[in-house]
Structures are given as C-alpha cells and as structure tokens.
Amino acid sequence: MTLRLVIPKGRIYDKVSELLGECGVRLAGAERSYRPASSMPGIEVKLLKSQNIPPLLALNQHDIGFAGYDWVLEQNAEVTELLDLGFDPVRIVAAVPETSDIDELKSRRIIAVSEYEQLTRQFLQREGFNFTFVRSYGATEVFPPEDADLIVDNTATGATLLANRLKIIGTVLESSTRFIANPRALDNPQKRQVIENLLLLMKGVINGRSRVLLEMNCPEDRLEAIVNLLPAMRSPTVSRLYNESGFAVKAAIPTKDVAMLVPRLISAGASDILETPIRKVV
C-alpha cells in the first residue's frame, strides 16, 4: 500500500516539512526536485503549487495533501478537510482605489481583476456589482486604477494594498493552510489508518507548540493556592518531594499565559520554577 502525499512548493513547504518531521516523517532532497524522499516507508511525496492540489486530490491523483482553504473553495474541490494547520493566515479581500466611491462603482459596469474567478464572481454578485471579470497571474495590486476598478486579492497585513493606494471594501474569505484528503482514500481501511495516525500526530505537535511544561516546588501549606492558579489541561501532577515536607507540581500551560502566571506563582509560594518546551500533546 502506497499513500500518495502532495505538498505545496514555495513558502508553505518549509512549515509543512517541519511539521511532518516532528511527526516522524522526514523529507530528504532539495525542494526543486519536486519528489523528495520520505523517511516513512509507504509514503510517496510530490510537490505542486498549492492551487493545483485540491482538484488533483478530488480527481484521485493523490490521497492526502496540504493547500490553502482559498484554493479549495475557489475550485469547489470535493475533498475532505482533516485539519486547519493555521499556517499562513490571510484574508481574501476586495479593494478599490482609495478615491473610489462605492455607489458610483455600483452605478456602472466595472472591470474586476483577480486570480480568484469563482470567489470574485460570487462576492460581486452578492454585493450587487455589474462587472466584467479579468484573470490576473500575479501582481494583482498593480492593475488599478488604469486597468481595473476593483481587485480581489489575498493579504496578510494590508500593507501592499495600502502602498498601492488601495482601500479594502470587503472581506471575501479568511484562509489558512489545511490538511485535506481525497475522500476515496478515506474509504480504504489501510490508507485511512495511516492517515488517522498522521492526523493524530499533527494535532499533537500543533497542541504542543501552544504549550510549555511548568515544574515547580511549593511548601505543603501553599499547595492548594498554587494548584488553583494553574490552567492545566486536566489536573496538575503533584508529588511529594523526597525527604521534604513540600511538593513538586507540574502542568502543561498555554504559552501565552506564562508571562502573567509565573509572577503570581512566585507570590503564592512556588519556587525552583522550570519551563520546558513540549514536542507533542497527544
């Protein structure tokens, strides 16, 4: 049994490769080879552009892959989303020249430019625009004002649009990298088991990245106060110190809470606090 995995080339590749490596699937070979070797037997890997991945999965050319949610919807690909990785979050937005008046644009036929034809058509029809669509092949933001009245493009911060004197008039979609599957692969019991195992490990790595392990000592009379401060996943682990009256306490804590929590723990009587990264939470 061979599981056919397809990964986006370009900027997403490094993040996906790192995630897979932490799951025990290490990729070898330069990205430009398009066919890196996998350390896990039975997994065949190929690199493609993100926008090509959803339709090829739907056509049963591959079993599992990674792609932006925007391209899944743009191509109406019949794939199963397994996990939102949260990588490369972007907004797909409609933007016009900063001096444009929306009512004036809606009063006439406009030229709309985008790489996203279906998303653009759906948005403009919903908003009541009369338009002619023109597909772009990159650098969409340079079309207005001479060659387009409105564009639909992806943006992380909006800085590029602002630099080109464009203003956002609506959000079409919020997107990020998704782990997706060909539904027919999930119907195969052998492939499904491997996919589910990989999904479990990915979730463990992503959960681990958002937490750290805090370990500390505390006097017996301060144990209750310290435990009550800890936002552990379930209950903190508590064990009595060797030949001492105090306790050792450990808990997995959201990384974002550590800066505020540690001073409160010290004030409550905790000492010898250790912070350790977590590789996986399964």
UniProtKB/TrEMBL annotation:
Belongs to the ATP phosphoribosyltransferase family. Long subfamily. Residues 49-202 form the ATP phosphoribosyltransferase catalytic domain. It comes from Permianibacter aggregans. One of its GO terms (cellular component) is cytoplasm. Keywords: Amino-acid biosynthesis, ATP-binding, Cytoplasm, Glycosyltransferase, Histidine biosynthesis, Magnesium, Metal-binding, Nucleotide-binding, Transferase. Residues 209-280 form the Histidine biosynthesis HisG C-terminal domain. It is found in: Cytoplasm. This is ATP phosphoribosyltransferase.
